Amino acid sequence: MFKELTNRQLVAIVMLAISNLCSTVVVSCIGPIYPGEAKRRGMSEAQIGLVFGLFQLVMFISAPLLGKYMHVIGSKWMCIAGLQIASLAAIAFGTLNWIHDGFHFFWASLFIRFIEALGEACFLTASLAIKFDPFPFYGFMETVAGFGFTVGPLIGGVLYDNFGGFQMPFFVLGTLLLAATIPAYFLIDEVKDDFSEDPLGMFGMLKIPSLWLMVFAVVLCAISLSFLDPILSGHLQSFGFTHTKTGLMFFLCDGSYCLTATLWGVLLDRWNCNNFLMFFGSSATIVSLVLFGVVEKRLEWICISLAILGIASGALYIPSFQQCLDVVKKRGYDDSFQTYGCVSGLIQSSYALGGFMGPTVLGGWGCQKFGLRSIVLSIVVINLIFIFALLSFLTAKRFCTATTYFVDEAHSSIIIKESNRNSLETL
Asked: What is the mean pLDDT of residues 408-414?
């Protein structure tokens, strides 16, 4: 695989991987350090949640639009511009520590986070369009991004406690991102691809009823994970945790996700157990939430709940992509890169929507208005609704498969059986 790549391509892959790692770390490192700084300036939990959720909202809106018009802007220039914007925004976010007034701190946080999200959307959308055949670049970048989100809170906590305070993570990572724009100019080639308008496209996919069940699963997974972002550090405050220890608690959840993600992939490849894994993931999410916010608050219960939540989220999220692909292929979509792109865009947009709702509506405003216990119970109820919807879908699917009508005319029998098969595929 690597022998077929030129030295220039290898350097470009390493450069893009480091850029992707730094960009995801700088996005996720604020978990253990930002809420405390914001509360010291008088910000409410709703405002803190909005700062966390705005990033995903901008990604949800801008990423599909950037993907649609990337052939106009050019993948190379979109990638370089994204790196520059994201790096400068990251450095600017580190200067927030010098703003002591809560009102200006809040609005400056929102503005910089908005700009940073635009830069990230440009960089990620463009970088995933770059090809290094036969190297599996898309899967590699997704792995790097997952690792970055996993270690980001831990790196943020360590740098905060030991190497210069709030601004240090953003100055270091932002500078690395900015430096990456120089080799990117010389190493990245423009992707030349024939643009064609798919007559079906992503909007055609949204007309498939069963696809909405997968969207529901992804949104639910994102909500269950992201609602913790603005509240976990405050929830652990009674244990006297440092920012580093708080980062370790974030790492416990994300790390268990990464460790078990490969296992879920192997199970899917061998037994094609998409529905069972989603049922398990949602059920395990309920268990983790009960341990986190319903039973008596104890450190050991919180640790166990975060580990289970990471495992459960992988079981809920990972089968969704393959399930979506199977459904759309049955509805006439080609097994092509464009179809994969549409499904990937749909899944990413769904996750971004949940990533906005979790910290903003539930973790921020919801916990401030109704309390943590009520919000946790509401997410439990949403998971129960998903389980009911999944079981109803499987029951209807089995009923359609089992129903067969026998009539005298052979031709009529064939028509009825074909109708039953089509009704199953439209679920």
From this structure: 42
Q: Hey, where are the domains in the chain?
A: 1-190, 200-386
Domain 1-190: which CATH class?
A: mainly alpha
Picking from 203, 232, 79, the residue whose alpha carbon sits closest to that of residue 141 is 79
- Measured CA to CA, the distance from residue 18 to residue 176 in angstroms comes to 9
Domains 1-190 and 200-386 share a fold: yes
Q: Could you read off the pLDDT of 302-322 as tens digits, one per residue? A: 999 999 999 999 999 989 888
Concatenate the DSSP letters of all residues of 249-309 into one string: HHHHHHHHHHHHHHHHHHHHHHH--HHHHHHHHHHHHHHHHHHHHTS---HHHHHHHHHHH
Residue 198 phi, psi dihedral angles, 5° rounding? -70, 125
DSSP string, 370-395: H-HHHHHHHHHHHHHHHHHHHHHHHH
At 75-120, the pLDDT tens digits run 889 999 999 999 999 999 999 999 999 999 999 999 999 999 999 9
- Model pTM? 0.86
Give me the residue label for tokens 């030129």: 6
- Determine if the peptide bond prior to 134 is cis (ω within 30°): yes
CATH T-level topology, domain 200-386: Growth Hormone; Chain: A; (1.20.1250)
Half-sphere exposure of 99 (CA within 13 A, CB side): 17
What residues pair up with 135 in beta bridges, in sequence order? Answer: 132
- Rounded distance, CA 25 to CA 159, Å? 12
